[in-house]
Amino acid sequence: MDRHKILIVEDDTDINRLLQRILVQDGYDTIQAFSGTEAKLLLGLETPDLILLDLMLPGMSGEELITSVREELKLDLPILVLSARAGLETKVAALKGGADDYLTKPFEPEEVLARVYAALRRYKIEAGKPEKDTEVYRYKKLRLHPDSRKAEIGGQELPLTMHEYDILYLLIKDPEKVYSREHLYEQVWKGGYYGEDNTVNVHISNLRRKIAAADPEDEYIRTVWGIGFKMA
Q1: What is the pTM of this model?
Q2: What is the pLDDT of residue 1?
Q3: 192 vs 84, which has greater pLDDT?
Q4: Domains of the chain in sequence order
């Protein structure tokens, strides 16, 4: 079986080497970059299976690299942010910008490995999933096409990330069901739920913003206070 290759982007040499050692000991191959600019150059030469990314980098920042990966290089691979910046606004911005997960420093090696494993498993499952669901799901003006993984409102395609699409797919398949944050996290990210994690809220917020841009007159996703989310 091929070994997964992980790009570590971290300007602190000691932390970069520590992450490299942790990952190699767990059976991964690694590529090391010490600036955002170097990471972008490496991504032009080869495509890793996952990026483990610091935000505070010399030259090109982590946020700028995320934007470049998603919009310029058009790479759909997991990006895990590992940063000392623990503020909610920073986390939200990174997740909205295209990161898949966010861990704060100092970190436990076991949690880094668990998040890496969960992200890779999720992408592997998605890449190998047969396209059997050809039904078009309809809700108000929203149309979801599982065969092409596209969502549109009034003929306008919504620019959804993989996780945003998966959340919307779960909700629209059973519009009367209320999904808890824990259930959504476990179904979409295929990993253990950390109660303090804001990932689900951010992705729901992203979905609402993108849907509202296409149809500002109607509500599509409703918060059921104390429980979770459902179609409105």
Answers
A1: 0.60
A2: 46
A3: 84
A4: 5-128 (3.40.50.2300), 137-231 (1.10.10.10)
Distance in angstroms (rounded) separating the CA atoms of residues 7 and 152:
34
Return d(Cα 77, Cα 123) in angstroms, integer.
7
Q: How far lies 128's CA from each of 109, 125, 132, in Å?
A: 29, 5, 12
Helix (H) or strand (E) run with residue 126 in it: helix 109-128
Indicate the pLDDT class of residue 42, thresholds 50, 70 and 90: very high
Instruction: Specify the range with the lowest mean pLDDT, choosing from 18-32, 88-102, 191-205.
Output: 191-205
DSSP 8-state assignment for residue 72: I
* DSSP string of 190-215, one letter each residue: -S---TT--HHHHHHHHHHHHHHHH-
Query: How high is the pLDDT of residue 189?
Result: 79
How large is the average pLDDT for residues 137-149?
87
CA dihedral (104, 202, 187, 155) positive or negative: negative
Q: How far apart are CA 230 and CA 12, in angstroms?
A: 43
